[in-house]
Every structure is written in C-alpha cells, then in structure tokens.
Amino acid sequence: MRAEARIVAESDGLGGTRLTVLRGQSPLLLRRTGPRTGEGVTVHLVGGAAGPLRGDELRLDIEVGPGARLELLSVAAQLALPGRPAPASRLTVTATVAAGGSLRWLPEPLIRDSPGAADRRGRL
Hints:
The protein is an all-beta fold and 124 residues long. It contains no helices and 11 strands. It has one domain (2-109).
C-alpha cells in the first residue's frame, strides 16, 4: 500500500494558526483536535487501517509557516505487522519549519512484530 498525508499550518495574521492543508489517506488519517481558540493547532494522526504491513510505503509531509504553531500527536502506538514477503514497511516524515514557527511532533511508539518489519525515517 502507498499512502500520503500532508499538513500545512500558517499564521492567521491575528496571533493564531490556521490549517490550509489537512489531508490523508488510510492508514494515515489526520484529525484536528483540541480547542479552536488559542495560538496553536493540535492534530492527531489516526490509524485508518491495519498496518503498517511489510512492503507499505507511507509518507507524512509537515509544513509550518512563520509564526504558526503546530502540535502533532498520534492516537496510539503503531503495530508493524509482517504481512507478505516484501521489504520492510517505510514511514518517511518530512518536516519543514520556517523561522518563527513551532512544531511539536509527539508520536506514540512503533511496535515491530518481527525484526526488519518496519523502518521510520525523518527529515527536517
């Protein structure tokens, strides 16, 4: 399975943050949570399907503009399942934070069912 999710947070010009892009494909579903007031925005990553399974290619792109504040959490730990004979599943997270922006990325743990079942990569 191939799936992508993308978040773009920008300053609203009034001291707060707005999400201009919030989209995802199962199993990388994104949900805005928390109060709609205040400076920052909270988003949860929700698993919308079993996985990751061996061979899955998952990508999460995060962009935080100047003056924007984003907190990104996951709802629960991910369980990397062995699935079919294939390369390890891969989740690549790419985050770009502009000067004056703030990102708090607080994922729950990844639990591997077997050695080599999953690979996580991050780029800032």
